[in-house]
Amino acid sequence: MWKGRFTKPTSALVQRYGESMSFDHRLYAHDIWGSIAHAKALTKAGILTAKEFQAIEKGLLEIKADIDAGKFIWREELEDVHMNIESALTRRIGAPGAKLHTARSRNDQVATDTRLWCRDEIDSVVKLARDLQRSLVECASHHEQIVMPGYTHLQRAQPVLFAHHLLAYVEMLARDTDRFADTRKRLNVLPLGSGAIAGSTIIVDRSFVAKELGFDGVSQNSMDAVSDRDFIAELLFVIALTGVHLSRLSEDIILWASAEFGFITLSDAHTTGSSLMPQKKNPDVAELTRGKSGRLVGNLMSLLTTLKGLPMTYNRDLQEDKEPLFDSVDTIKLALEVFAEMIRGLEVNVAKTQAAASDPMLLATDLADYLVNHGVPFREAHEVIGKIVAHSVKTKRALNEFSADDYRKFSKAFGKDVGNVLKIDTALSKRKSTGAPSPANVATRLKYWQKVLSQD
Question: Does the global pTM surpass 0.85?
Fold first, then answer.
């Protein structure tokens, strides 16, 4: 590539140290797509003849077919995917192949390839996230009436519907897919034509190339175009956050599947046993996902650390963007896919969830609300119920074992109907403000998501 300037060949050790072909070869389809579009623009500009373009296009498509079939020989000494393909093209078709790199640099070429690759992968990730949403909605629909405790600080707090809990993750994933869409919109700008740093004196129609490649527009600053990796950082952030959401769901799954909770049973297909203890059934999918979320966060931090000290414009450090990008995309795609399958295979242990939800302490706040509705200021009501709870713990009598007269010893605002407050069905039906887990609200939200997800 640079033999005109150098008198000594690059050492074999430097070649090994600097090559990126071993991982960036997966950009080959996008590199070829971009090269064909660039060749069309060179033809439009009069740099290539129609015959030369035809030779280039035919040669590139033949190379793609060889790579697809596993017949292409990748050469480490050519450093990267771009030079491997260009070199193979020139060997096949001669002089026209040597003209292809006119008015472009590997700097704007790799930026273009990576944006094209990210765009396609975002579409794939969003489809998988939508399928996980569907699996959660399906599971919620099958268990729409099941009640369970909701938790804060991992302590029983208030009763909720199991479906409402699952729908919380559907909402999280909806935000994730929105962020992926936003990222896709921002990255869909063509950098090709920016050259190494300052464009080229050979003018090609960049808007034409953008249209050929499906970009919404072209970059407006050549220096920014070749050095920008914001779009990768943003994609890694969205992936990492999605991973964090999956990690939180994993923690719930792990807890629910434990003997101490016993709320769910995971399929044998999505658990493993122990090499020593015959009775074990381990929630490996959830544990692995919880662990892999750390890798996703680490990949984001790796790229941000690489970028933070770079002067303008292109620096070889930017080669370090590919491996964390590829790893994060591969990891989140597999995690989303296996999680959707696992959710579809789990069973809810209704007796366990209902037994846990029958704890009268879960309705202590409802008792405070009862007093508020009878004219007692909330802070005073909170104190009264706190004293009743303390008395319940001390006497080892459940809140639903107290009579109306017992309650009146703590506040004259209690009436004979106080016992109705301690009924789960009543308590849930009253939670009807927007976003609250009343059966009616949950049913409405389930229908909403079923409609939205059926349209994808």
Answer: yes
